[in-house]
Amino acid sequence: MAQKLRRRLVLAAGTCLALLAGCGAHDTDAGRVLRVAQYPDPDELNSQQNAGSQVYMGLCEPLTGLGIADAGDIRMRGAERVDTTDGLVWTIKLRPGREFQNGEPITAQTYADTWNAVAYGPNAYKASSTFSVIDGYAELNEDQPRRDTLRGLEVLDELTLRVTLTQPDYDFPKIIASYAACPIPKEGLADPTAYSQAPVGNGPYQFVRWDRNERIVLKRWHDYQGEVPPGAAEEIHFKIYQSQDTAYRDVQAGQLDVLRNLPGGLLNDARNQLGDEGLFAIPQQRQITQMLIPEYIESLQDPRLRKAISLSIDRDAMAGALLRGSATPARSLIVEAVGPAYRADACEDCTYDPERARQLVAEAGGFKEPVFLWYSNTGGGGGTEMSQIALAIANALRQELGADVRLRPVLPAQLTQAQSSGTLTGPSLSLWGDIYPSPDQYLGMFREGGDGNEYTQYDNPAANELIAKALATGDELQAAQYWQQAEDLIFEDMPGIPLFYPGIYAAHAPCAKPGTLGGDLQYYLTAFECGPGREE
């Protein structure tokens, strides 16, 4: 049930949670090695450069953490409390005695130095936009930056940081739960390139080595004072794969303990081969597959053509026959896990109605140019399924609307580069997931400055105003009304066409029990009961 936040929002530290019992307790069963899949070999390990780094999740203790039972809940980790009276100015009180694994103390100045460095445009941190909500960010990211520190950061004392935002934003405690907001030690700020290859963290595990294209090794840091999962492994070996299919076969053969993001095409096989004891459905799933239409594609700027594309797609048939029940049709731009802002049928043009689609195409004067449909032809979360989706959509547009559709399959990195640089020649199929559960993580790509906006370059001032109102209220139900009104305005232009909510599963050994935080499986939370002596 939605809870109305009090005018004075105070988040304070509590006791260790049951799932993560034994805070700071030592694992006496030394030598136990958890083997997990890493696909593919990453370029960097720290989340300031690699937002989804599962390696860094084990190395870092953020200030706050997302919930276990409810992804939207916030609890304290490196912070004792985070409070505000107006959503604009926030005070963060750190836990005393925290330090990095090299012995360097963690203070309020540590966070100020880290956030300033990551936010500063010339430093080229990929996670820079995490701090776009803080006053002064825009000046750090001009062509010729006028300053190199955020005006909104003020160190009050050794353990107290005051943060002033550009506008009220009650998502702020969730933003700083992001691993992109983790502290970086002095040596990491002095040499970011070296740090991205061998990070020094402040969390339950520490980096040991990286054998390129083979494995990344972490080991328990027993001086860690925070949350440690029960039965935590003494070491985690991230085995690097070029194919998720190969990783899955290793789970079957007993050579791998956990594979997250099991490809949907392998789901039925996993049910038959591994059974309930070897298949884990990730709760509160927070991903959406959608078609994004950049504003610079002039031939598709007419909303009637975009709506016609959506109306020609039979989501229900595709989800059942094509995706074999591994996904559910999406008719909203956001996901259910974000709370009352979600509406299952927010999009009236997301039903299958080819007759109406043809009418809209005729009103718009038809497709005057070929439709180039971009998608990733391999990789996590996409792979074979994305190729099948692309082909099915192309066939529907050809048969129902007479469109000249040309498929543009590319590697995942190529698709991301084209999306980010604004060099697509048509719409793209995209799998999108949030960093923290909030409607803004999904509608942000449809407003300038929001996460993922480079993919669409869409901006709607009226919708932006509603989004700002939603972020500025501490009343979740009132905010939900603003979110829904903003989504309705965005759907009028249809820069994004929701397609499916993919089911997210992990394949695992029976003695390795995956754990989640904030609705996301994190390898280091695996409850490990496989016993010692399993090093490769």
UniProtKB/TrEMBL annotation:
Keyword Signal annotated: yes
GO (cellular component) term, any one: periplasmic space
UniProt keyword annotation of Signal present: yes
Ranges of residues in domain Solute-binding protein family: 83-452
Protein name per its UniProtKB record: Peptide/nickel transport system substrate-binding protein/oligopeptide transport system substrate-binding protein
Top-level taxon of origin: Bacteria
Gene Ontology MF, one: peptide transmembrane transporter activity
